[in-house]
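Running log. JK asked me to keep both predictions on one page so they can be read side by side. First protein, sequence followed by its tokens:
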Amino acid sequence: MRIAITGATGQLGRLVIEKLKTQVPADQLVALVRNPAKATDLGVEAREADYAQPATLGAALAGVDKLLLISSSEVGQRATQHHNVIEAAKQAGVKHIIYTSVLHADTSPLSLAEEHRATEAELKASGVAYTLLRNGWYTENYTGSVPGAVAGGAFIGSARNGRISSATRADFADAAVAVLTGEGHEGKTYELAGDNSYTLTELAAEISRQTGKDIPYRDLPVADYAAALAGFGVPEGFAHGLASWDADAAEGALFDESRQLSKLIGRPTTPLATAVAAALK
């Protein structure tokens, strides 16, 4: 059984490979990356595979049985790039594709969701066995701003009182490993989210508790939040995206209480307090 992971030098991909190596012989793992020279530290075979360069994908997928297709980071180009991988996987005889989608992709108002819906539909029509891992928000998407919030004296956003059921990258990596190494997941769709939801006000309160400082949550209009992010150096288009996703969170787009993630990984998801503590180190 040979398992390949796309985007293997990304933050999620690296975690998946490290966790897989504890359960699967390293010689059965393949890291698919744009630049194999940057993957030498992974300790597994690395093959050139560029989502946007179909000519690289056929050889990269030769002999692969299971493929973890980690969604591309290039918003706006994802549907085409994922199509390239799925077509190459079909030609190479890949037996099972596991895809990292987004929480409630079929109904989500997130602007990100449309490309995920397109890829999910293509997978279902591909004739290849598939599993959809509809990943919720990474807790790190918010805790990455913790140091800045402490320095600036407030945590800012546009999510109002929306409840967010996030989980850490490590939690989502464990879910991918569970499917890659387990049985009976073909044709399944998993809505993956943290066990316990929180508001950004509650996140700010946790930061305050751990630092001993008063770090309130300051809710901003979407345009103002986007402008603030741009002022911090976030590219303008991405800043507007982040702000709009916060606005969607205010309407419940990042909330889920099914606890499918903890059931899949066989343990509770990482508590918010633990993630905040890691961000403060």
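And the second, directly underneath as requested:
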Amino acid sequence: MSENRPQWTHEPDLALRRVGGSVVWANDELFAERENLIKPGPAQFQPWSFGHKGQIYDGWETRRRRSEGCDQAVVRLGLPGVVSGVVVDTAFFTGNYPPFASVEGLSVDGYPSPEELAALEWTQLVPKSPLNGDSENFFEVASQRRWTHVRLTIHPDGGVARFRVHGTPVADPRWLDPASLDLAALENGARITDCSNMFYSSPSNLISPGFAAVMGEGWETARRRDDGNDWVTVRLAGAGIPRLAELDTTHFKGNAPGWACLTGRRGDGEWFEVLPRTRLQPDTRHRFLVPEPRELTDLRLDIYPDGGMARLRLWGALTDDGRTTLHRRFTDST
């Protein structure tokens, strides 16, 4: 990632279609569909590609307003959580980007309709702020509340290529079984704390929901030219005792690691072995029973020497401390 990007852009995109996000409503999408806002990857552009309504854009574009008002799109977050910042990306929109944008948030249970959402009280996350065309526009968010929906308003009209909502997922403990869950899952509250290399893709992909559809939806490092190895550390959803580890190299064929091992620790204690160094196969979903289950709060995956992994799972049970952490994280943000 560019060093010019804010640090919070390293956090997961809570709105991404890949993690379950959805653009549930927009008041206008005549030129380009609202669903493009949360597509993975950067926007694409092909000059002189005209459809029946004009130049085709990989983004959301509304018609030119001839009356007072503004245009809006509502996004249901795939991973409800605390928002650290948003990116309003106007890539390839030059003479047709909005001059201003604002963002609001909402936290609600269930699956309300667009009409029901419109009737609720929204909270300002980003005030009306100027935008640059054909640019990523970064806006930090100070709120520590948990949000389930965000609303993007463009003033008065125009086109936005991508809308990224970076932050920390906060799981609702009412929907989790503390006796059996993926302790390393992003949607359960786990997060990446550090990694040796993320040249090709983010390590947060490792703990994202679902299976990777392509190689680019995993974590892949640059080729090493030394005697070291690559690694990533995960703060688990809460203190727990694992029983099953899953190391998934699906889609990684000529670039899967040759071996991997797992270590863990409780708090700031010493690291101990969870899974010994084990040979891996390319394009394979490996599952291993944990030989000697012990309580841990942090997990480290070492791959040898480098390469790519699609997913990392660690199934087990929360301890009493882990349950307390999970509940406190939820109640402190609601």
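Observation for JK regarding the second prediction: The chain is about 5% helix and 40% strand.
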